C-alpha cells in the first residue's frame, strides 16, 4: 500500500503534536516546494481535523465542530486562564518586542517578575540576548502564535481603523486559556 503525500503530512503532524513541523522540513521530507505543500494542505478534508499553518509551522488541529466538547473538557479540568497581570505583560511584550523586563515594568507601573515567570514557563515568551545589549530581551514564541492561532505577529489587533486599541487587545487576550 502506497501512501499519498497528504496522508504522510497528516501522519507526521499527528506524530509531532504541539511541536508542529516547519515548511522547510516538510519540503525536504515530502520533496515538494513550500507552495506545493500549501496547495496540497488546502485540499485536506476531515470532519473534525484541520491542518493549519501558524507562523512558519504546520499543525494538525481540531476544527470548530469540536469546540463545544473541548470547551467542556477545558472548563472541567485544571486549566486556568492567565491572570490579568500576565495578559497585560504578554500584550506589552507582543506589541513592543524585543523588550526588557524593566521596560515591561515601566509600561505596567508595577513589578512584573511573577507574570513574566509564568509566561516563560508556559512557553509564550522567551528571553534572548541581543548584540550590544546588557539586559536580556523578551520576545514571543512560536507557541504564542500557535496558542492564538496567528500566522504572524502582523495578525495582532491594531488601531489603524480608529477602534479602541485597549478594548480590542483585551478581547483578543481574553481568549487565552492555559494551565497556570
UniProtKB/TrEMBL annotation:
Gene3D superfamilies: Winged helix-like DNA-binding domain superfamily/Winged helix DNA-binding domain (1.10.10.10). The keyword Cytoplasm applies. Keywords: Cell cycle, Cell division, Chromosome partition, Cytoplasm. The keyword GTP-binding does not apply. InterPro entries: ScpB_csome_segregation, WH-like_DNA-bd_sf, WH_DNA-bd_sf. It holds the Pfam family SMC_ScpB. PANTHER family: SEGREGATION AND CONDENSATION PROTEIN B (PTHR34298). This is SMC-Scp complex subunit ScpB. It comes from Macrococcus armenti. The lineage of its organism: Bacteria, Bacillati, Bacillota, Bacilli, Bacillales. The gene is scpB.
